Amino acid sequence: MNKLIIVSNRLPVKAIPRGNSFHLVPTEGGLSTGLKSSSGSDSEECWIGWPGISNREQPVKDELNKQLEQLHLHPVFLSEKDKKNYYEGFSNCTIWPLFHYFPCYTHFDDVEWESYQKVNDQFCMEVLKIAEDNDTVWVHDYHLMLLPALLKKKKPSLKVGFFLHIPFPSYEIFRMLPWASQILDGISSADLIGFHTEAYRKYFHECQEKIRKSGDNISTPRNTGVFPMSINFDKFNKTSKSPEIKAIERKYRMRFKDQKIILSVDRLDYTKGILHRLYAFERFLEQNPKYVGNVKLVMLVVPSRTNVGNYRELKNHLEGELGRINGRFSHFGNIPIHYFYRSLPFNELVGLYKAADIALVTPLRDGMNLVAKEYVATKGKGKGVLILSKFAGAAYELNAAIKVNPFDENAMAQAIKEAVEQDEAEQEKRMRAMRRTIKINNVDHWKFSFLNRLNGINSRKAPPKQT
Ligand code: ADP
Ligand code: F6P
Fold first, then answer.
1. DSSP per residue over 367-426, as a string?
2. Which ligand 2 atom lies nearest to the CA of residue 30?
3. Residue 19 CB neighbour total at 10 angstroms
4. Which atom of ligand 1 is nearest to the CA of 269?
């Protein structure tokens, strides 16, 4: 039987070295949390990716290989240099900021581009070690945009799908990339290319067309589609009803007795709009003094890309501003913002979602945003309000959320007030509508719509080039 080989930069678990040993922890981020919670397909499945440690850690590597093998995970070890140039550099200082409309954070560096090409080659070699004729290879995300073309060139019988988990930007942004044609060419060789929203798909085609017209020789993409990624609705829904979660919910409700809890959950990333959110909450307190002391913001922030300068600066800035705002509005034993800089175990996270009266999900730009969907899935028939940025892919599906422009501080403050004051019947009505959407469009729906469409496509040898 043919295999399904999933390839992404990271594996769904990462190894944290501890002397001569290590322990495995779950990888945060939507790609991993979403995909790993999906059901297995009929084919034998395995996953290729980086376990988060470099190839220097030899004693750890052998034992790690053994443990990963049992989980059908195949590690790709990056060198320290490639971790810096391919992962922190080209992936997270070039593609990530540019595709999220932060050109001012983007740098363009030949050495990093070389490393990106080299690591895409390295992933190609790893795939070819296990791929047999007619296997399906599903490549994920912006770290591996050259891989579809490399695979098709080396083994044309493979069926290759590519899914982009971040926005595809408009032409005026994309064409800033000195390697725009190579990136398009790399993706376009896939038999099927998937995006979260129609807008991203449209921009991709627009870039293809315009770059081709400008005289560059690039492959024509054959099949593209829109597949909004989602979550395992049943897992969140069921877990949220368990006695253990109810106890965790009670713990938080007791802690914040007679107070409204506003929750935000993100990786510490400048695209998530964490500072803008903080200022909007400050404005809300300023404009509504009666809520000072009885509306609390709980900010759960998970460390991310801590070696990248912009992320470190954001942390310092955020913690400074948090301190300032808390200093301004606190009373003894009563502070307005509770901040946690760490990853939480799944049950604690679900308990917090369950306890939260309001989820404040306001990225400046986000491919999808699964946190918004996770919050809704835990709410049962109950109450809860979702405030959601118009710039998250999830906003196209979750129409019953209170939608906001995260750059508009006054409108955000107003949305918080509206959420705090929304009556229960209205909350339940909106929650019902959003839950219906996510229950049907769950992560299995996403996975199998993509794979079924890919399997129905006749693989082709080499994509036609057009000028
Ligand atoms: P991204 O992929 O950009 O990180 P998403 O919102 O799509 O954004 O996915 C984030 C995922 O990481 C969610 O599944 C969320 O539950 C998880 N996550 C975020 N912060 C934490 C945290 N502090 N503890 C545990 N899980 C977290
Ligand atoms: O979905 C966006 C994403 O970049 C994923 O590719 C990745 O799993 C996640 O965010 C976390 O980022 P990192 O792998 O850099 O820790």
1. S--HHHHHHHHTTTTS--EEEEETTBGGGGT-TTSEEE-TT-HHHHHHHHHHHHH--HHH
2. 1
3. 7
4. 3
pTM equals 0.96
Averaged over 341-351, what is the pLDDT?
95
Residue 159 vs residues 3, 316, 360, 377, 381: alpha-carbon distances, Å = 10, 46, 40, 34, 42
pLDDT band (50, 70, 90) for residue 346: very high
| Rounded Cα gap, residues 87 and 51, in angstroms | 13
Query: Is there a contact between 414 and 151 (Cβ–Cβ < 8 Å)?
Result: no
Q: How far is the CA of 402 from the centre of ligand 2 (A)?
A: 26
Residues noted as catalytic: 165, 366
Which residue's CA is minimally distant from atom 15 of ligand 2?
305
d(CA 11, CA 76): 9
Residues with Cβ within 6 A of ligand 2?
Answer: 10, 29-32, 141, 165-166, 304-305
Q: Which ligand is nearest to the CA of 301?
A: 1
